[in-house]
């Protein structure tokens, strides 16, 4: 890898680390919704119960995407720091871990960065949806 590739990997890892705040918010929303359901679920109106359940359930794909982004952070950091020497070495390691099929074609670094950014966007969309539904759940509470 050349210096430009390492810089791109370092910048991508930094962006991923910064997006960790979004993951914390998504986890907090799911946990709060789960606690509300666990503590007061039987006394909630059906609409409120459904919104809190939706928030909690949206926490499942949110957690998956957050985990994937944490793995990507570590991989891009490894590429940037040189602990992962090259993309073929990374691909071989991912194959050994069962995270990549050996038959897949090699991907350029720019494609990997783009894929990671798309995963970040999907994660952000899930958390925004959780936030909107949480606000709706709070509004439904006030309308009692």
From TrEMBL:
The chain crosses the membrane at residues 21-40, 46-66, 124-141. It comes from the Bacteria. Keywords: Membrane, Transmembrane, Transmembrane helix. This is Uncharacterized protein. It comes from Variovorax ginsengisoli. The lineage of its organism: Bacteria, Pseudomonadati, Pseudomonadota, Betaproteobacteria, Burkholderiales.
């Amino acid at each position: 890898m050349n210096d430009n590739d390492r810089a791109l990997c370092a910048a991508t890892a930094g962006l991923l680390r910064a997006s960790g705040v979004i993951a914390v918010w998504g986890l907090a929303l799911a946990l709060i919704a789960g606690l509300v359901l666990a503590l007061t679920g039987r006394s909630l109106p059906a609409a409120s119960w459904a919104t809190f359940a939706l928030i909690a359930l949206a926490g499942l794909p949110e957690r998956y995407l957050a985990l994937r982004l944490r793995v990507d952070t570590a991989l891009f950091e490894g590429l940037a720091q040189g602990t992962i020497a090259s993309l073929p070495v990374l691909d071989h390691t991912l194959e050994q871990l069962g995270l990549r099929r050996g038959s897949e074609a090699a991907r350029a670094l720019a494609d990997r960065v783009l894929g990671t950014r798309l995963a970040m966007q999907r994660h952000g969309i899930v958390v925004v949806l959780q936030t909107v539904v949480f606000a709706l759940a709070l509004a439904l509470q006030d309308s009692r």
